[in-house]
Write a structure and sequence with these properties.
By secondary structure, this protein is of the alpha+beta class. It is about 40% helix and about 15% strand. It has a three-stranded antiparallel beta sheet with strand order 1-2-3. Strand 1 and strand 2 form a beta hairpin. The radius of gyration is 15 Å and the shape is elongated.
C-alpha cells in the first residue's frame, strides 16, 4: 500500500500541537523592519493558529 510523504516545505513552516491545532509564525518579520512600528514587529514575533479547512489540509501534509 502506498504511503503519503511529508511535504517538507510545509513541515518547516507549520507544526501540529498536542491538541491537534496547526501552529504557524507570522511572515514579514525579517526584512525592512526599520519601516515597521515596534508594536507591529512585537505582534509578528508571536505564533498564531490556522483555522478551518486549510488547517485540515496542512495536517495531512505535515503529519504523514
Amino acid at each position: 500500500m502506498g504511503k503519503i510523504k511529508t511535504h517538507k516545505a510545509s513541515a518547516k513552516r507549520f507544526s501540529v500541537t498536542a491538541n491537534g491545532k496547526v501552529k504557524m509564525f507570522h511572515s514579514s518579520h525579517r526584512h525592512n523592519t526599520g519601516n515597521k512600528s515596534a508594536k507591529r514587529l512585537r505582534h509578528l514575533r508571536s505564533s498564531a493558529t490556522v483555522d478551518g479547512k486549510i488547517a485540515t489540509n496542512l495536517k495531512t501534509l505535515v503529519l504523514k
